[in-house]
């Protein structure tokens, strides 16, 4: 059985997707962009700020789904420049602490709205 997690704000989104779907105790978090709430503008053009924001957005979604960051199994991060890797890794490491989910970082040419990174995750409940 699947559960879809949508806030009232998410229902107004122009994209046809759910922030997360749960199926058989596994939570799939859609790609999160570091946008200002309710706007299609990056909250910052600093890679560390953008990384922190997408991690916090992921955590908020996981909490709504009855999970948390310590139950994350896998993270995929898309970056527009591999030179960002050390800064992304530092913020990511501080956020997760001793927990080390499986992770892949994928370089891409560009992301929506000029964002520098996008993050998606899989967690358990």
Write up what this structure looks like:
With 125 residues, the chain is α+β, with helices and mostly antiparallel strands. The chain has one domain: RutC-like (60s Ribosomal Protein L30, Chain: A, 2-Layer Sandwich). 27% of the residues lie in helices and 30% in strands. The protein has 3 helices and 6 strands, in the order E-H-E-E-H-E-H-E-E. The chain has helices at 8-11, 47-64, 85-96; strands spanning 2-5, 20-23, 26-32, 72-79, 102-107, 117-124. The chain has a 6-stranded mixed beta sheet with strand order 1-2-3-6-4-5, with helices on one face. Strand 4, helix 3 and strand 5 (102-107) form a beta-alpha-beta unit. Helix 2 runs parallel beside helix 3. The longest helix has 18 residues, at 47-64. The two termini are 14 Å apart. The model has no long low-confidence stretch (mean pLDDT 92).
Topology, element by element:
Elements: E1 2-5, H1 8-11, E2 20-23, E3 26-32, H2 47-64, E4 72-79, H3 85-96, E5 102-107, E6 117-124
Parallel strand pairs: 4-5
Antiparallel strand pairs: 1-2, 2-3, 3-6, 4-6
Helix pairs in contact: 2-3
CATH topology: 60s Ribosomal Protein L30, Chain: A
- Total number of helices: 3
Give the beta-strand count.
6
Task: Give the quaternary arrangement of the chains.
Answer: single chain
Main beta sheet: 6 strands, mixed
Question: What is the CATH class name?
Answer: Alpha Beta
Radius of gyration: 14 Å
């Amino acid at each position: 059985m699947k559960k879809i997690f949508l806030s009232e704000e998410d229902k107004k989104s122009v994209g046809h997707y759910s922030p997360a779907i749960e199926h058989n105790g596994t939570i799939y978090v859609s790609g999160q962009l570091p946008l200002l709430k309710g706007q299609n503008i990056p909250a910052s053009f600093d890679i560390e700020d953008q990384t922190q924001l997408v991690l916090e957005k992921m955590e908020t979604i996981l909490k709504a789904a009855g999970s948390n960051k310590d139950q994350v199994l896998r993270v995929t991060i898309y970056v527009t420049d591999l030179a960002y890797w050390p800064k992304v890794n530092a913020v990511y490491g501080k956020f997760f602490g001793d927990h080390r989910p499986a992770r892949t970082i994928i370089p891409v040419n560009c992301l929506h709205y000029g964002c520098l990174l996008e993050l998606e995750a899989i967690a358990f409940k």
